[in-house]
Amino acid sequence: MRAIAAIRRILGTSACAAAALSLAACVPPNAAVGDAKETEPRVEHDANRRADTKAGLVGSGDIATDRLVLDALDTGGIATAYASVESVNDTTQTAQDAVLDMVARAVDVVVVSGLAVTDETAQSWDEVLGQAREAGIPVALLNPQQPPADETLYAVAWKVNDRAADATPIDEALMTIVRDDPHERELMVTTNLEQ
């Protein structure tokens, strides 16, 4: 009986180690997850994954912008889990908890709206966004007030401009990140998908 239990422990430990190594393989060296720069993705992907894509939106105090983003992603056929930080006492902790929740849900991309990293919150944001990175989940910042200093923690910073004719539809910008296609580090996006 002890021999069987020992073998099970060894197999269990080996399985955990293999899982950890496979997650580490999702993290590109010296780049953010989802930040393909100028190279083509290493893995072939199905261009029609839109219906299977799960996004997580961590809201800001600007509920009107959050609603526009949610509506645009829904119109674009992208299922989105939403975490509001409106009307909470500690918006930073609530937003960080929401990012961790999205990571636990294994969404395909986390969008953090209105991120404002301060000297006091820099370390905790680095840890939280680092967990998304380690899980192989790209992070997009939407209208960031102050992004983290470590640029490997996010794939792109989007600025919403619904009046600009050359803005990229937000659903297309999101799919570019999910597919790990080359893209700009800062990008103007629109929630007006009828442009």
Describe the protein in words.
The chain is of the alpha/beta class and 195 residues long. It has 5 helices and 7 strands; from the N terminus they run αβαβαβαβββαβ. It has one domain: Response regulator (Rossmann fold), CATH 3.40.50.2300. Helix content is 37%, strand content 16%. The protein has a 7-stranded parallel sheet, with helices on both faces. Helix 3 packs parallel to helix 4. The longest helix is centred in the first third of the chain and has 23 residues, at 2-24. Residues 1-31 form the signal peptide.
Number of domains: 1
User: According to CATH, what is the topology?
Assistant: Rossmann fold
The CATH homologous superfamily is termed Response regulator
Beta-strand content:
15-25%
Number of helices: 5
Question: Into which percent range does the helicity of residues fall?
Answer: 25-40%
Q: Using the 3D structure, state the CATH architecture.
A: 3-Layer(aba) Sandwich
* Strand count: 7
Strand order of the largest sheet: 2-1-3-4-5-7-6
Alpha carbon gap, first and last residue: 68 Å
Structural class: alpha/beta
Feature tags:
195 residues, alpha/beta, Rossmann fold, 7-stranded parallel β-sheet, 5 helices, 7 strands, 37% helix, globular, signal, Sugar ABC transporter substrate-binding protein
Structure at a glance:
By secondary structure, the chain is an alpha/beta fold. The protein has five helices and seven strands; from the N terminus they run αβαβαβαβββαβ.
